Amino acid sequence: MKNMKQQRKHHLWRWLAWICGILVVLWLAAGLYFFKVGMVPGHKSFISSNQQTLRKSDPLYKQKKWFKNVHKQKWTMMSASKHYRLVADYIPASKPTAKSVLICHGFMNNKETMGAYAAMFHQLGYNVLLPDARAHGQSQGKYIGYGWPERYDERKWINRLIKKNGQKSQIVMFGVSMGGATTMMTSGIKLPKQVKAFIEDCGYTSLAAELDHEAGTLYHLPAFVAKPAELSLSIVNRIANGFFTTEASSVASLHHNHRPMLFIHGAKDNFVPTQMVYTNYRATRGPKELWIVPKAAHAKSFQTAPQQYQQHVQQFLAKYVK
Questions:
Q1: Half-sphere exposure of residue 263, counting CA atoms within 13 Å on the CB side?
Q2: Which terminus of the chain is more exposed, N or C, with fewer CB under 10 A?
Q3: What is the C-alpha to C-alpha distance for residues 257 and 220, in angstroms, rounded to an integer?
């Protein structure tokens, strides 16, 4: 009888070990799957394709046409870590000026998709620098960093602008979506005094918060499934990409920013929820302004209200860039 109890106990522990082993394998598999979806460059079914065809019905047709035809200087440099070759387009202002803008694009986009913004800033009298982020466009890179490792790349681009245009440079940093988050994350590190202001459009509060939102929106995962999967992804990302997803926080970075920042967000943004901008706005320590664009979906604020968008940008910058 005693031997039978011991055998049953042994079988029970063996089954429990098997079950735990299977759960660990599934947990790691989930992390690897979501790492591939979120961090490895490639086609993403949840991102609409970037349509580069010019259409006269596009509210930003003139800006995009200008960008397509304007002469661009090609700049290259090595990334701040990992030794990747990064590529950017530089467009000098029509007249010599110390004012420059560094423009950051969104997730799985590239510098060409930011042409309308480049045209707007050029019209406002700025030199324009548009880099391709790591693992995007013409720049090298294995994995997407969502602004966290890229913030040090942006600082190197800022120093390139100063080298190009002199110590009297006045630099503005601008970004949309992932580029907006990159802008906010960059604002939290030590930067040259020539950086005068930031403008972010529809950036997320943190990578972890955005992943949590997308897990619910795209995969409809309940919290008890999503949270362990996110933890697994974070560990995989730390090993492959150099940081835990919980580290990449716009909010934490903004706590260290004392420079002026303009926050823009669409009122109908379901991809990076509009409510995130209020958290970001409260976090920054410098002068700040907030504009919620009525009826605008994610990254569509400029397209939805082109004239008002340029007016808001121009009026904000007039206070801090002379």
A1: 28
A2: N
A3: 35
